[in-house]
Every structure is written in structure tokens, then in C-alpha cells.
Amino acid sequence: MTFAEYKFLILSDLYRITRQTKTLSLIQNILWGEAYKYIFWMRTCRFMRGKKWLKYTIYPFAIFMLQHYQYKFGIGISFLTEIGSGFYIGHFGGIFIYPDCKIGKNCNISQGVTIGNANRGKNKGYPTIGDNVYIAPGAKIIGAVQVGNYVAIGANCVVTKDVPDHAVIVGIPGKVISLKGSNGYINNIDYQDKIGQGEEI
After folding, report:
1. Which pLDDT band, with edges at 50, 70 and 90, does 30 fall under?
2. Hey, what domains does the chain have and what are their CATH numbers?
3. Do residues 173 and 139 lie in contact, with contact meaning Cβ atoms separated by under 8 Å?
4. Where is 147: in which H helix or E strand?
5. What's the pLDDT at 198?
6. Burial of 5 by CB count in 10 Å (0-12 exposed, 13-18 middle, 19+ buried)?
7. Residue 26 has pLDDT above 50, yes or no
8. Confidence band of 53 (pLDDT split at 50, 70, 90)
9. How far apart, in whole angstroms, are the C-alpha atoms of residue 106 and residue 95?
10. DSSP letter assigned to residue 109
11. Which of 89, 98, 142, 161 could form a disulfide with 35 if both were Cys (CB 3.0 to 4.6 A apart)?
């Protein structure tokens, strides 16, 4: 990961929350931004891990900060997890994502969400989540399932099968009830233009 890629990720995450990419807003949210603190240090650890000149200097401090906020906020997302730009945690607490999962851009995660692996059976493996996906409180996505783009997953839903694009899925086990998708749930995704215009650190 280059510094430019790292900067784009932390600013896109910030913009999803604040509609800002200014340095002052970044600093304020690193200090007082609750869930953003976790996202920032998660991104920072991933960036620093691949840089030898940082790995043995600032990197241990970044790991310490990530672990601190992991316990403080109840968020268990490894910095090794592949997560696209514009990642948004609406409410922290009880969130766990297995490191080998893949998550697309502009994903909304709520409290009590688990995205985990299945150790056996036909769905053995890890989920892949598409772009612009909304995951409501308490939802569980388990096994090698493919969740499409613009999907909305309802509260406490348990997803164990592939989900098509634009689906709204609810229940245990999850069932598609409409194709209205995540429209209205995923906001502030025009950061590409904002960051490109120079409104950045």
C-alpha cells in the first residue's frame, strides 16, 4: 500500500461520517471520533506493516492503539482484513470480522455484527461482501457466501447463502424479500470527487 492509497482510505472513511476531509476534522475524529479511532488505527497498522522503516518504530505504537480501542469499543476487525474505501461503523460494540473476509467499498456495519468463517460443510470458508452494502444490528454472515452489491441485510438476519445484487434480506435463515437494495442507507459516497479536488491532508 502506498501513502497515497492509505491517505485516500482514511479520508474516505472520514468523509462517510463527517462529509469533511480537512486536517482539523481528521484530528478531531482521531481524538474524539469513537468508532473512527478504531478504523483509523486499523488502516494505519495495515499501511505501516509493509514499511520496514515504520515496522520497527511507529508500528508497535499503532498496534498498541488498535488493541486498546479493540477492548474499549468491542470491535474485533483485524488490520489484515481487506476492506474497501468509505468504511463506516454506525454504532460500535460486539463487532467481529474474520481476517480472511473481503469487504467492498462503502460498507455500513452496525453493532453486534459478525462476519465469520465456516469450518466445514459446503460453505466452508469466508464471506465476500460487495460494494455499498448495509449490514443492520445483530446480523451474521457466515461461511463462503457472496453478498452482492447494493445489498441491505436486516437486523439479526443470519446469512448462509449467496445474496444477489440489490437484495433486501431478512430473517433466520436470511431470505430475500425485495430488490430495493441499500438505497437510502448508504450515504456520503461522493468522496472521490472531494478528495480529488484537494480537500485533504
Report:
1. very high
2. 3-178 (2.160.10.10)
3. no
4. strand 146-147
5. 47
6. exposed
7. yes
8. confident
9. 17
10. E
11. 89
Average of pLDDT values for 38-67? 90
Please tell me the distance from the alpha carbon of residue 46 to that of residue 59, in angstroms, as a whole number: 9
Look at the pTM and tell me if it is higher than 0.85.
yes
Between CA 75 and CA 88 the distance in angstroms is 13
Alpha-helical regions (H) of the chain: 3-18, 23-32, 35-49, 52-55, 59-73, 191-196
Average pLDDT over residues 158-168: 96
Give pLDDT tens digits for 55-79: 778 899 999 999 999 999 999 999 9
**88-92 long-range contacts, Cβ below 8 Å, gap at least 24?**
88/13, 88/16, 88/17, 89/35, 89/36, 89/38, 89/39, 90/35, 91/35, 91/137, 92/34, 92/35, 92/38
Select from 136, 163, 161, 137 the least CA-distant residue to 150.
Answer: 163
pLDDT average, residue stretch 118-144: 95
Residue at 163: amino acid letter: V
40, 17 Cβ separation under 8 angstroms: no
Distance CA 162, CA 175 (A): 10
